[in-house]
Amino acid sequence: MKLTFLGTNGWYDTDTGNTISTLLETKDFYIVFDAGFGFYKLDQYIIEDKPIYLFISHLHVDHVCGLHCLPKFKFKQKLTIFGSKKTKKYLKKFLNHPFTASSKELAFNTNFIKLKPGNYNTPFKFTCLKLDHADYTLGYRIELEGKVITYCCDTALCPNDYKLAEGADVLIHECTFLPGEESDWGHTSPEKAAKVANKSNVKQLFLTHFGAHEYKTLEKRLEAEKIAKKIFLNTIAAEDDLTIDLNKKTV
């Protein structure tokens, strides 16, 4: 099982990275969380014909703008997109003229599966729950190959944040705010993400979705990592193109 951070910025691209997209490769599947502009790199990593599943957290542009790059891909397999009912409604408009090419013009097939908060067993065991963000947002918990991978982005701390993370082998969590910063928009600082990991008995925390306007250098991310490690030692501040073999100890 391999984790690759295609994009690690929130809001907009900078020299520190592209907007958010994360690839989880398992024995039988390619699983992608969100489709910011880091999504354009997907065909660099998808080299087998395993099914591709894309989980969209919400419709903010930094999480879906990379879908504009779908026409560059030449996948042989189908792309299945998961998201809320509202996500399907608006993506159907966005993935069409005059914004971009329509799905009929792609070199591969696509379909969309609507989700409500709850537990699912197909195509593998996963859970999605509503998070605390400015607009409707889902967090995901995937159980595969004896591991639990949780993805929470974007969100402020909330009960479902903890519930999705409980006992996870890997928690991929947003880190929009600088240490000590707060607002009512629905985001997280490094120490609060570390608090979730600590209280939820997570094994490994990856910080991502760094606010582009706040984290202007990678050094800023490392400072955030140091602060988070004081609360939860097994913390890594992700960078674009970082690849982790989850079958090996990372820290």
What this model shows, in words?
The protein is α/β, with parallel strands linked by helices. The chain has one domain (2-245): Metallo-beta-lactamase, Chain A (4-Layer Sandwich). 19% of the residues lie in helices and 30% in strands. The protein has helices spanning 42-45, 61-64, 85-94, 159-165, 190-199, 218-229, and strands at residues 2-7, 9-10, 21-25, 30-33, 52-55, 79-84, 110-115, 118-120, 125-130, 138-144, 147-152, 170-175, 204-211, 235-237, 243-245. Strands 2, 8, 9, 10, 11, 12, 13 and 14 form an eight-stranded mixed β-sheet that branches. A seven-stranded mixed β-sheet has the order 7-6-5-4-3-1-15. Helix 3 links the parallel strand 6 (79-84) and strand 7 (110-115). The longest helix is centred in the last third of the chain and has 12 residues, at 218-229. 43% of the residues are buried.
